[in-house]
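From the pipeline queue, job 12 of 40. The input is one protein chain; the requested action is below.

Action: predict structure.
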Amino acid sequence: MQVNPIQLFDAESSTYTYILVSPDSRDAVIIDPVDRHMERDLAHIERLGLHLTHVLETHVHADHVTSAGKLHALTGAKACVPSGCGVPPAQVQLNDGDLIRFGGREHIAVIHTPGHTAGSMCYLWRGNLFTGDTLLIDGCGRTDFQSGSAEALYDSVTGKLFTLDDATRVWPGHDYKGQSVSTIGWERRHNARLANRERADFVAVMAALNLPRPKLMDIAVPANQNLGLAHSV
């Protein structure tokens, strides 16, 4: 049975937040929540009568502050982070191949996809892949800071994500063009940065991007390494 996540958007950072709901219970998981939208997210959870069990981060974000720590304090949900991202206060440190269980029979598979950051993770649930900044619709995350590596990102996407079933739906961590969902098959064939491109060519493309430094980076990164509890923006 196909189950759709609830997709929410932060216009300031173009960040997507996702709420996953167990169809057999009212247990729910939230992925990449944004601090400034905590009340909105809690309102959705309350309106639908959900019980939040886990807060998942795909990586330590540089463009917004997470509400993971506050959501844990308010709901008791476990904050779960990639083990390689340096977030010691989290209740769960995730590693490649872990399963996050909720709602009785539900599980989310953890896939370590270094490249955007060294610790970046993607999450696979019921044919839905939540890719954070690793794989975007018709693009990918930058690789020029936070232990990023274009070589590692290419290997993560082509070796782990593009090997999934073509019908797997891709739910990105960001979108800047009004797009909300894609598929692995479409991205493998058409992604502007990755499709039909050799590793060395991809590395050259990423090296030439010359992107500006994220304006909130100096605030967001240390705050997110403390589950968003150090600052609020």
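Job complete. The radius of gyration is 17 Å.
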